[in-house]
Design brief:
44% of the residues are buried. This protein has 310 residues and is α/β, with parallel strands linked by helices. The strands form two sheets. An eight-stranded mixed beta sheet has the order 1-4-3-2-5-9-7-10, sandwiched between helices. It has a three-stranded mixed beta sheet with strand order 6-11-8. The protein has 13 helices and eleven strands. α5 packs across α13, α9 packs parallel to α13 and α11 crosses α13.
């Protein structure tokens, strides 16, 4: 039996006596958040940065992040977890380290689009004191790579939306990539640690929050640098099917309005849905086809996977 590694906590010199207005919470596993730490520190005199290395075993990465934390001009803490906590439990753990009245969840593969990114969030807190607010994300600073073309096109079409469009379905467009949450709201409604693997834990959380508090949307985006290859996306969608089934069980009326649910229900009624799934996967992974057609295949493959749980 392999013994669990102990947790390791590292604070920088500015940590001990700080009274931050905003706690920036960044989990990572494999991604390097050093540039994000640097850019946030340049912007935010009233923030603290708290990072979770979620059971990673890359010692070189751990050294780089530790150095970035220790060299940061703003209060910063790094928690290296001895085990992998996962997306929901890891973020819940981060909030336990936070001292501000507001949390800003950021993914490690994000970078602020504007030099006043932190100032805009602080102004939002001061002016509106929202319960929850999502700032959006973009591809403004994302390098273009041929092997990421399908993911980029899909994200630009369905995820990188302005606030006025996101407000049409507030809970649907809530992701932990750039999410502001008031402390008392999160203490009342935390992420469901029953979610495992990839996907849906943030949207499901927003569905529960929306029963009690309004979800706001703001145009204060950060760029998503961590795009995936199409093969990597198929693996993530395979992980997400059980999580989608969990959402359907908990929030059937909300999910019934989602296109992915309606298509999955249609596929489930087909006698040869396994064949549909296989053909959709082959279409998605065919590098010789146009990007749009591959994207269609990938979305169809996701719906075919979800057909097994609806």
């Amino acid at each position: 039996m392999t013994a669990l590694r102990p947790d390791i906590l590292t604070d920088n010199a500015a940590w001990a006596n700080a009274r931050p207005r905003l706690s920036v919470l960044i989990p990572f596993l494999g991604d390097d958040p050093a540039q994000l730490i640097s850019e946030l520190a340049q912007q935010g005199a009233e923030v603290e940065i708290i990072l979770l290395d979620d059971g990673g075993t890359d010692e070189a990465l751990a050294v780089r992040v530790t150095q970035a934390v220790q060299g940061s001009a703003v209060p910063a803490r790094l928690l290296r977890s001895g085990q992998n906590l996962g997306r929901a439990r890891g973020r819940n753990r981060l909030t336990q380290q936070a001292r501000a009245d507001y949390f800003l969840f950021l993914d490690a593969d994000m970078l602020p689009d504007a030099p006043d990114f932190v100032a805009r969030w602080l102004d939002c807190i001061e002016t509106d004191r929202p319960a929850v607010c999502f700032g959006g994300f973009s591809m403004q600073r994302t390098p273009e790579r041929r092997d990421h073309a399908v993911h980029r096109a899909m994200a630009l079409n369905s995820d990188c939306l302005p606030a006025d469009l996101r407000r049409l379905a507030p809970e649907k467009y809530v992701f932990t990539s750039n999410l502001l949450v008031r402390r008392d709201v999160f203490e009342a409604v935390a992420f469901d640690e029953g979610f495992t693997g990839w996907g849906w834990e943030d949207v499901e959380w927003a569905m529960r929050v929306a029963r009690q508090w309004p979800i706001r949307h703001l145009d204060n985006p950060a760029s998503h640098l961590g795009l995936d290859t199409t093969a990597a996306l198929t693996r993530k969608y395979e992980q997400s099917a059980a999580n989608f089934g969990r959402v359907v069980q908990e929030h059937p009326q909300v999910v019934a309005g989602y296109a992915s649910y309606r298509v999955a229900r249609m596929i489930r009624r087909l006698p040869g849905r396994g064949l549909v799934r296989g053909l959709a996967r082959a279409l998605a992974l065919s590098g010789s086809l146009p990007t749009g057609l591959q994207g269609f295949g990938l979305r169809l493959y996701r719906a075919a996977l979800y057909a097994e749980v609806v």
